[in-house]
Amino acid sequence: MPSLPTQVRALVALLPLLAAPALAWGPHGHQTVGGIADQLIAGTPTAKKVRAILGSNLQMASVWADCARSVESKAGQWSYTNPGSFKDCAVYENPASQAALVAFVKRNATRCGFMASYTQCRHKAWHFTDIPIQLKAYGADLPGAAPNDLVQAVAASITVLQGGKPPAAFNIASRREALRLLVHFVGDLHQPLHVGSIYLTEDGKPMLPKDEHEAKAHDNAGGNGIVLAKSKLHGLWDDVPGKITTNLLAGAGATLARDVPPATGPIGTWPMAWATDTLQAAPLAFQGLKIGAKVNLGHGDQWPASTEEPAYRRARENLQQAQMVKAGARLAQILTTLWP
């Protein structure tokens, strides 16, 4: 039997890694966004309102929506699985908090199993939208968008915090739940691969899908199917180096955030405007990438990729920092607008 090509052998070795679900920004990135916003509103009536609703600060609340991914259904029974697996979720692993997570997931899902797709488990779809990077603005009717995507999730959370009723795709039970979701989703809205997606042909060439059917045929799950340096491309962008988060949380983040231009117009237009801003930054995540032809080893389509280092890593870290600073500034602006 002939030996497998080198790229295929490499991908075989990566299968356990590729099966693991990715979390947006990772906990440190989300906590950094929440922490920047905490510093910007410190000592204000806004901060008192946030504390009254959450019972904590934004930094702590920022991981709640990802902790909900640990809720699963087996034989019709819902439960919080594998406590202790994610140290940043430990604060929510007491009985009352686990019950709140289970109630949220159960209320918003038809069936949630391991690696459930967005059509099967609605709350997982709230973390992303997959607009082609060739486009210049987010639109709810574009390929990759959906009525329950990330942009709509941010808008729905704001609606609940304003005392309104969210669209049918979202069942958000309280202001506490809405605020926990908002702090997380504003972070997601600024992760380039949670907004912009590159759609690929079988030989690894970018293409612009004309409709949702064509988008699904050429999808790579927001970069999860692109393998770079033994890692998913999406995972690399979620993983923010500690040196960046430490510096931003030490005060540099709030200082930089004060220079972010505030959003204008009605608050309801901000999620779409910020998604457009992130979409325009998303092509930078693919600059310098050489993407090879698709391979399928029975575990989904994967495209091997390569790039020049350390240039790509430095560019990635610079954009990660800039996006987290924007997210912190914009989260604070939403909250000070809701509760001056």
From TrEMBL:
Molecular functions per Gene Ontology: endonuclease activity; hydrolase activity, acting on ester bonds; metal ion binding; nucleic acid binding
Pfam families: S1-P1_nuclease
Domain of life per record: Bacteria
Gene3D superfamilies reported for this sequence: P1 Nuclease (1.10.575.10)
Keyword Metal-binding (UniProt): yes
Gene Ontology terms describing biological process: DNA catabolic process
Keyword Cell membrane recorded: no
InterPro entries attached to this UniProt entry: PLipase_C/P1_nuclease_dom_sf, S1/P1nuclease
Keywords: Disulfide bond, Endonuclease, Glycoprotein, Hydrolase, Metal-binding, Nuclease, Signal
Signal peptide stretch: 1-24
PANTHER family reported for this sequence: ENDONUCLEASE 4 (PTHR33146)
Protein name listed in UniProt: Endonuclease
Native source species: Pseudaquabacterium pictum
